[in-house]
Amino acid sequence: MNALVGTGLLFAATLRRDFIRIITWALTLPVIHLGAVIALRGVFDDDPVSMAARGAIIETPTGIIFGGPGYGSDHYTVAAMIANELTFYYEIPLAIGLLLLVIRATRGDEESGRFELVGAAGVGRLSALASSLLTALLIAVSNGVLLTAAGAATGLELHSSLLWAWGIAGCGFLFASLGAVCAQLSTSERNANLIALVAVGTAFALRTVGDIQRLHGSLLSWFSPLAWTHQLRAYVAPRAWPLLLYLVVSVALTALAFVLAARRDFGAGLLPNRLGRATAPRTLNSPLALPVRLLRTTVLAWLVTVVAFGAACGPLLGQLGAYVRDNAEVYEKLLGVSADAANQVLVDAFIAYLLLFFAVFGAVAGVMALGRLRDFETQGIMELQLAHPVSRIRLLGAWCTVALVSPVLLLTAGAFSTGILTPAEYWGDSPTALAFGINLAKQSLVYLPAAAVMIGVAALLIGWAPKFINLAWAYLSYVVFCGMFGTLLGLPEWAIKISAVGATPALPGHPMQWPPVLVLCAIAIALVGAGLIGFRNRDIPQT
To answer: Any idea what DSSP says for residue 357?
Structure first.
């Protein structure tokens, strides 16, 4: 039998099954890009003073971490700002989303036994891999086309918009093909995801260290696919040949994935399985044990990521302050305050920005956890669990507990690692680095209700409309969009408030306001409670 027979049918089935997810991934980044360009043009409008200040920041180590190698920083423009400072925020989500999609559609379906049933109907063994890569390619191409259109619609130069957009798309598909390779290595979807996410983290570390070593990137930068879009030098001195790197490496990884898939046994992985315990511990008898055991590796991976990220950003706040002092006149004119006050304002804003992203990472981990529960329902595993003496309320409550603990861990750990390595001049009333780290960890919890609301939306959908669980990702994307660009775009106050983060006091740097925090807590409790009620009363499984 042809190993690829039935690929078209599986591709059509994937489009039908994941229609909302595919549409979400195809539209989210272009919509965010459209709003971002409008917002940045409205705020900066290529003002020489503002652009000079921004260009100085982008050359600092802190600026390089978030903004890349800094092409055009000497004569900074809004277009160069977009190519430098937004690339990271588009590449990483698209890369992670596509590689998880490919792993879920290959190793995930194989692990659950779904593909064994499909394969019995005369479908080739490589067809699932081919259809998943076609789906990833469709999403990547859609992003390339729509990002180009968004750039052109806002008046950006078409040639550079085209190069930059297809750099983002090429990066996304490269990591999708990497996910296809990782799916062949392990027998479990969880471990394959972990391997792939470690690869993304390594690529980001190589890009960061390589760009810090030398302005406009060093040799080390070229070993990271996350650096190649920056090397297109869009809107500054555009060149197209780095796109060939995405093409060549994607083809090579795709070919490797097909070779590995053809040579391994069905259901097996190329890496040996670790032997488990001979007897199960008593703790596995509780409903909480299963989500803890299944999700601990994923949460640990997120935890290591935010701790490393915070530890890298903390010391660089001193570099940010040094640049503010070196450009005191610029910042005094830009912010209307003294250089020392401008220094503190920018540092507080940067820390608040970090805490916002730690909260989003925690919400992502929580929504992924509840998405895993939905997968268990569609795979029939939940029915086996409910055959035991465990109520539906306890079952969903256990998963919600793990989901809500994730942002607590990520927020406090990320804030603490940032605080203990922050220069002493920003400690305020804290006598030591340890005290400042603990204080910042406490302040970070103000973002917990916003993360809980995002997770509560997923719990509500699990309880009442599980088929639409992917809408939780759409709401999370909306929260990120409002957090980054809501104020810049001048969105109505109500539109920003419903994003959860928009109603959160931006600590540190702003006074604490308890009423909105308490309201968010009440909303999160109501969403989770409603989800529990709906889950108790609906049919299982619901497809």
So the answer is: H
CB 414 within 8 A of CB 354: yes
User: In the block, which residue shows the tokens 């001193």?
Assistant: 318
8 Å CB contact between 28 and 283:
no
Mapping DSSP to helix (H, G, I), strand (E, B) and coil, where does residue 355 land?
Answer: helix
- pLDDT, tens digit (0-9, with 9 covering 90-100), for 491-540: 677 777 788 887 888 888 778 888 889 999 999 999 999 999 999 998 88
pTM confidence score: 0.80
Separation of alpha carbons 270 and 128, rounded Å: 18
Measured between alpha carbons, how far is 390 from 284 in angstroms, rounded to an integer?
A: 13
Q: Summarize pLDDT for 292-327 with one digit per residue, the tens.
A: 888 887 888 888 888 888 887 777 776 666 666 666
Chain centroid to Cα 73, Å, comes to 27
What long-range pairs does 291-298 form, CB within 8 A, spacing at least 24?
291/369, 291/372, 291/373, 291/398, 291/399, 291/401, 291/402, 292/402, 294/190, 294/372, 295/365, 295/369, 295/372, 295/402, 295/406, 297/190, 297/191, 297/194, 298/190, 298/193, 298/194, 298/365, 298/368, 298/369
Q: Is residue 295 a contact partner of residue 369, using CB atoms and an 8 Å limit?
A: yes
Nearest to 194 by CA among 304, 84, 106: 304
Q: For residues 369 and 406, is the Cβ–Cβ distance under 8 A?
A: yes
Sign of CA dihedral 469, 193, 270, 221: positive
> Token match 């090429």: residue?
170
Q: Where are the domains of the chain?
A: 1-270, 286-543
Q: Which two tokens stand for residue 204?
A: 């980001």
Closest among 225, 215, 203 to 71, alpha carbons compared: 215
Amino acid occupying residue 124: G
CA quadruple 371, 171, 407, 418: dihedral, nearest 10: 170
| DSSP 8-state assignment for residue 275 | P
The DSSP string of 67-120 is HTT-TTGGG--HHHHHHHHSHHHHHHHHHHHHHHHHHIIIIIHHHHTHHHHHHT
Please answer whether residues 419 and 441 qualify as being in contact, where contact means their C-beta atoms are separated by less than 8 angstroms: yes
Say which residue the tokens 């940032």 belong to.
Answer: 418
- Among 69-73, 393-397, 449-453, 514-518, which is the least confidently predicted range? 69-73
Burial level of 280, CB count in 10 A (0-12/13-18/19+)?
A: exposed
